[in-house]
Every structure is written in C-alpha cells, then in structure tokens.
Amino acid sequence: GSRLVLVHDPDGRVIEPVAPKPGRFFGRPISCGGHIQILLVDFPESQIRIVQYEEAADLAVPVVSLPLTAVTDCYNLMLHASPLTLSRQESGGTIQILWPERAEFDIGETEHFFARRGDKLYFCRWHEDPEYREEVVVRAFPSGEETEVIPGAWMKMPDGRVWILQ
Fold first, then answer.
1. Which of 5, 29, 48, 110 is most deeply buried (CB count within 10 A of its CB)?
2. What is the dihedral angle through the alpha carbons of 127, 131, 133, 137, rounded to the nearest 10 degrees?
3. Separation between Cα atoms, residue 140 and residue 22, nearest integer Å
4. What is the pLDDT along the chain (166 residues), one digit of tens a residue?
5. Global confidence as pTM
6. What is the enclosing helix (H) or strand (E) of 30?
7. CA-CA distance, 69 to 47, in Å (whole number)?
8. Is the dihedral of CA 136, 102, 144, 104 positive or negative?
C-alpha cells in the first residue's frame, strides 16, 4: 500500500486524512470546491473511492465508491476539478470518464484530458513537427466529437481564471 500525508502551510501541521492499509493506494489529491479530494483504490475490498477531507472536522468523508470492476486496470486513474470528475486514460488514445457520468471514446495519442465545463471537455494535444507546439482540443460530452481546436496551451491561474498561451 501507500501512505498519504498532507503538510499544512505555513504552520507545518501534518495531516493523515485516511489511514494506510495493505493493498490501499492513493492517487494525487486535488482541490475542488474548497476541499481536498482524495482518490484511493482499495484492492482487498475491490473498491475505488473518492473521499473529501473536511479540515474543520479533521475528517475524511466518502463522496463515492465504485467497484474495482468499473475499470480494466487502474493505470492513469485521475481526479479532475470543477466539476469533480474521475477519469482513466489508456496509452493508445482512449479516455474513460468514470464518474459522475460515464463516457468512453478515442482521442489522439498525444492528447490528455484536463478539464470539463458543462458539456465541453478540454484536452491538451501536443505536436513535434519539427517544432514543439500545443493545442487545446474541445470535445462534446458524452460523444467525444471534436468541436474546436485552439492553438496554444491552457493555463489555469491560482485565482481560477484560465488563459490560453500562444
């Protein structure tokens, strides 16, 4: 298994919101809705869980639990914010949106999912032909149909605003 420890800044307080157990692995925590969201896979219990850390109560509360059979494997299982979304991307160009709604479709080999806004999914696609460049690919949810390609890189600022850098 693995252990998840959060260190509060600036006071250095150490928080372990979910106890480690054999066969329990954590994904990269994210911030969404003003809370820390944690992805954990519990292999002995055959569960994929998302929990939310409530700082005021010093408590991790369940958000959702999915059966491990919802995925073929846990490679590239990731949480995304606003809205909270669980996805899995295969290294051959398939994306699975697993929660809160399900969708699956093919994408380019150099694309990766990073955001959802309503019925639009945003991906980054990179090229080396021969110069390196990036594009923001907008796809319709749930079909995955490509609706727009914007030259440049999506950059989310600390205040939540998004800029496309060209």
1. 48
2. -30
3. 40
4. 789 999 988 999 999 999 999 999 999 999 988 899 999 999 999 999 999 999 889 999 999 999 999 998 898 999 998 899 999 998 778 999 999 999 999 999 999 999 999 999 999 999 998 999 999 999 999 999 999 999 999 998 888 788 999 8
5. 0.89
6. strand 30-32
7. 8
8. positive
